[in-house]
Design a protein that fits this description.
Elements lengths: L1 E15 L4 E3 L2 E3 L4 E2 L7 H13 L5 H4 L12 H14 L2 E11 L9 H12 L6 E6 L5 H4 L3 E13 L2
EC number: 4.6.1.12
Family: Belongs to the IspF family.
Pathway: Isoprenoid biosynthesis; isopentenyl diphosphate biosynthesis via DXP pathway; isopentenyl diphosphate from 1-deoxy-D-xylulose 5-phosphate: step 4/6
């Protein structure tokens, strides 16, 4: 029997000087980056939370605590690889991912295809199964004031009951 699980994820990080801006595993030229214990990739963090949530496996804080020095500065791509292994151990695979990045600046359109390719490779799906969109808030809220960036994701996992 075909089993389908759905999960949602959300993440937000503040923009600060002196850090690179990493989104979807891509370093984006910008005068600020996201503050966090790891590389603070809000897009991948939202996707990981959605993947973990679909199988009721907790959240990324439970798996990768921000007080653990082994995760200091770690690439979120590496963390995503770990989450994908957990999903496979439970007998599931990724069906598709739909995500959105909310940021007033920088403009992200030139980098979205690279983000999709990076994540599709790790998720072991075709690029057509990974959607990344970007939007602004028309200068409203913390994203609009350029204080931070947020991301939301929804995922579908597919499994088979033996």
């Amino acid at each position: 029997m075909l089993l389908i699980k759905v999960g949602i994820g959300y993440d937000v990080h503040a923009l600060v000087e002196g850090r690179p801006l990493i989104l979807g595993g891509v370093e984006i030229p910008y005068d600020r980056g996201l503050l966090g214990h790891s590389d603070a990739d809000v897009l991948i963090h939202a996707i990981m939370d959605a993947l973990l949530g679909a199988l009721a496996l907790g959240d990324i804080g439970a798996h990768f605590p921000d007080h653990d020095p082994q995760y200091q500065g770690i690439s979120s791509i590496t963390l995503l690889e770990h989450v994908v292994r957990l999903i496979q151990e439970k007998g599931y695979r990724v069906g598709n991912v739909d995500s959105i990045i909310v940021a007033q600046r920088p403009k992200l359109a030139p980098y979205i295809m690279d983000m999709r390719m990076n994540m599709a490779k790790v998720l072991r799906v075709e690029e057509s199964c990974v959607s990344v969109k970007a939007t602004t808030t028309e200068r409203l809220g913390f994203e609009g004031r350029e204080e931070g960036i947020s991301s939301q994701a929804i995922v579908c996992l597919i499994g088979f009951e033996s």
